[in-house]
Write a structure and sequence with these properties.
Radius of gyration: 19 Å
Oligomer: single chain
Distance between the termini: 33 Å
Strand content: 35-45%
Helix content: 25-40%
Mean pLDDT: 77
Length: about 120
């Protein structure tokens, strides 16, 4: 019986899909990340960077991303879509190697999303 428990725990660890440090850093510190990961979710049409500030291990990017509109029926089915603006404006702060802060706005106000990375 104890062997079965250990096998179950080992399988759960494998299922976590632990990502190596280099892969994580390349994915999360990539300013083109939204085009691959978030394009379909937010219906991003284009991205334009207005400013990029490089201070070595700390950088900032300011960008706008127009999105394709959702229909009124789609918004009724998923009411949180009413909160998405027609154009996503982002201020991204990159504190290499372990922190990214996304500053954005919605119809409810300003928001910040912090991503902490632990290898």
């Amino acid at each position: 019986m104890a062997v079965d428990c250990y096998q179950a725990i080992e399988q759960q660890i494998v299922d976590l899909q632990i990502v190596d440090l280099l892969t994580m850093l390349l994915n999360m510190h990539d300013y083109n990340h939204q085009n691959g990961t978030h394009r379909e979710l937010f219906r991003i049409i284009d991205i334009s960077f207005h400013q990029f500030v490089d201070n070595g291990l700390h950088s900032q990017a300011f960008c706008e991303m127009p999105t394709a509109p959702y229909t009124f029926v789609e918004k009724l089915r998923k009411t949180d879509l009413f909160l998405l603006p027609d154009k996503l404006k982002a201020h991204l702060e990159n504190h290499f190697p372990s922190l990214i802060i996304f500053h954005g706005e919605s119809t409810l106000g300003k928001l910040a999303q912090c991503h902490f990375f632990v290898p």
